[in-house]
Amino acid sequence: MDVKSYIESGILELYVLGQLSPEEEKDVQDKQAKYEEIRREIHEISLGLEKYGRLKGIKAPENVAGKLFEQLPPKSFDEKPPKGQKLSSDQNSGLKWNLLTSLFLLISLLAFTLYLLEKFEHNTDILKYENSKKICDSITTQQQQQFAVLQQINDPNNKIIDMTATPAYAGIVAYLHYNEADKKNFLQLVSLPDIGPDQVFQLWSLKDGADPMPLDIFKDKNNIIEVAFIDQTLTYAITIEPAGGSKSPSLDKLIGTIGVI
């Protein structure tokens, strides 16, 4: 049994207020006899309602009951007394008890509502904290990754090579941080052209006597990203390709080349 989900279902609050059927009450009693967490939660709900009853309860004016009795129409009784006949003490007593019971139920409902509001606000605060923590953790992870990249591109074995842009993409700037010793490549993208949502940038390895080898695909325009290092590559090239990349480069969308040898 998932005790946490059972507790969060709200059935224990209804149990404390006596709003369950006999069968449901018996089920709760069986479960609280079996699970310490449920017994503790019922105790806390009871204390919470009692606390709200003390702190948030609003006392009715002393004369409110009398005024309510005076304003009640005769049809509130099952049988109308004959004209001029006063209510018997039993009828009057029953009416007072009905009114007091209604007032008690209203006060209990108010206390329960306030309790649920505080519990909801508490759970909301927890969710906000957890979401904020996730965002902070994500930012921290990104910063750690960026710091690790900066450390690697500052390696003294790195060789920084400018990309030679084709005439169709004059003014486009990118650098390759080429580390033959560690066999690592990092592309520093400064100003790649705009592309459509159904397009990507793709890196290629060019070797003598071999077809262009498709490598990384990416959509970053201004970032530093690690890309594949291919032994014996003479030149790397960047093209614009359809989403998902291509098996052979689109030469009419060749942005530029980077010669490493």
* Estimated helix fraction: 40-55%
Whole-Å distance between the termini? Answer: 66 Å
The best one-word shape is rod-shaped
Number of helices: 6
Describe the structure.
Helices cover 45% and strands 20% of the residues. The chain has 6 helices and 9 strands. The protein has a 5-stranded antiparallel sheet, with no helix packed on it. Strands 1-3-4-7 form a 4-stranded antiparallel sheet, with helices on one face. The longest helix is centred in the middle third of the chain and has 65 residues, at 89-153. Residues 75-79 have low confidence and may be disordered.
Keywords:
rod-shaped, 2 domains, single chain, 6 helices, Immunoglobulin-like, 9 strands, 261 residues, alpha+beta, four-stranded antiparallel beta sheet, five-stranded antiparallel beta sheet, 45% helix
Q: What's the structural blueprint in terms of helices and strands?
A:
Blueprint: H1 3-8, H2 11-16, H3 22-34, H4 36-55, H5 64-71, H6 89-153, E1 159-162, E2 164-165, E3 174-179, E4 184-189, E5 199-206, E6 213-218, E7 223-227, E8 235-242, E9 254-259
Antiparallel strand pairs: 1-3, 2-9, 3-4, 4-7, 5-6, 5-8, 8-9
Helix pairs in contact: 3-4, 4-6
Give a brief outline of the structure.
It is built from 6 helices and 9 strands; from the N terminus they run H-H-H-H-H-H-E-E-E-E-E-E-E-E-E. The chain is of the alpha+beta class and 261 residues long.
